[in-house]
Design a protein that fits this description.
58% of the residues lie in helices and 9% in strands. The chain has eleven helices and four strands. It has helices spanning 5-16, 54-66, 73-99, 105-123, 129-142, 144-151, 157-170, 175-186, 193-207, 223-237, 268-280, and strands spanning 210-217, 240-247, 255-259, 262-265. The radius of gyration is 33 Å and the shape is globular.
Length: 281
């Protein structure tokens, strides 16, 4: 007999009912009766959370196949095969890129980013992606608060992307341009927005076999002046040149043209600066 009679009494009662069911249908200690949960057979329990990750994609695909309105199962199967083929090609590209030799992780990410921009450019050859990127960069340059908001660490990625999408929709930008800009804004990696856009413009122009010339002028150029300037630059650099014109009153007159690292300054402001330097000397 134990020195604790209360404990012995509880243990003996539990042993006498061991293996038996109580009224509630539970097995075990008589003092621990768990109430049965009543569920209606006609109303299944709803899920408390939405599926995420690859399972969400699988459910979307299965939903497309099970859609009663989509009676064309052949088309649904082709969509499924198309999604899988894109994923497999993307995986092949990533495997190939990772297998190459890179100086550091940042260089690898730059390479993948360039591949993505080139792919977006190839997807829609007729879109004026360079011009739209340049136009958006001018909007950023003219609005310091907007540039600060997009470059700040305080705002979320989704909020920045939504803001950019609204601006691009108002500007009637093409789908590749919207994809490029929103992707860059989501992952700036310590780079300024205008720097990201300039790099994207160079990549798009390179993919299309063109050079980008940024032309600063005090007044708007006529179509004839644009054509003549483009032909002159194409002959000089041996390739097609795309012009991005910036209205800049500070040049006073003439033109200042920048192609890559080359600067051709024929502006009146530059001539006046040279004259002042000569007079001061």
């Amino acid at each position: 007999m134990s020195k604790h009679p209360t404990f012995d009494r509880l243990r003996s009662r539990a042993g006498s009912r061991n293996g038996q069911r109580d009224r509630s249908g539970t097995r075990g200690h008589p003092l621990r009766r768990l109430p049965q949960r009543r569920t209606s057979p006609s109303r299944p329990r709803a899920s408390c959370s939405r599926p995420r990750g690859p399972w969400a994609n699988r459910l979307k695909l299965s939903g497309a196949l099970a859609d009663p309105l989509g009676s064309d199962l052949g088309a649904a199967e082709r969509r499924v095969r198309g999604v899988r083929a894109v994923r497999l090609r993307a995986q092949d590209v990533l495997r190939t890129a990772v297998a190459e030799r890179w100086s550091n992780a940042s260089e690898l990410i730059d390479g993948l980013e360039e591949l993505a921009i080139r792919a977006a450019t190839i997807a829609e050859p007729g879109a004026d992606i360079e011009g739209e990127l340049f136009g958006f960069s001018r909007v950023i340059a003219a609005n310091p608060e907007l540039e600060l908001a997009l470059g700040s660490r305080l705002g979320g990625e989704d909020a920045k992307a939504a803001l950019v999408e609204r601006l691009l929709v108002d500007a009637s930008a093409s789908a590749p341009t919207a994809l490029i800009v929103t992707s860059l804004v989501r992952q700036p990696r310590e780079r300024r927005v205008r720097q990201l856009l300039s790099r994207a413009m160079r990549i798009v122009s390179n993919q299309r076999g063109r050079l980008v010339a940024t032309v600063h002028t005090a007044t708007e150029l006529s179509d004839a002046q644009r054509t003549r300037l483009g032909q002159t630059l194409s002959q000089r650099y041996g390739g097609q040149v795309s012009l991005n014109v910036v209205i800049d009153p500070s040049v006073v007159g003439g033109l200042r043209v920048q192609i890559a690292d080359d600067v051709i300054d024929g502006s009146i402001s530059a001539r006046l600066a040279d004259l002042r330097q000569k007079l001061a000397g």
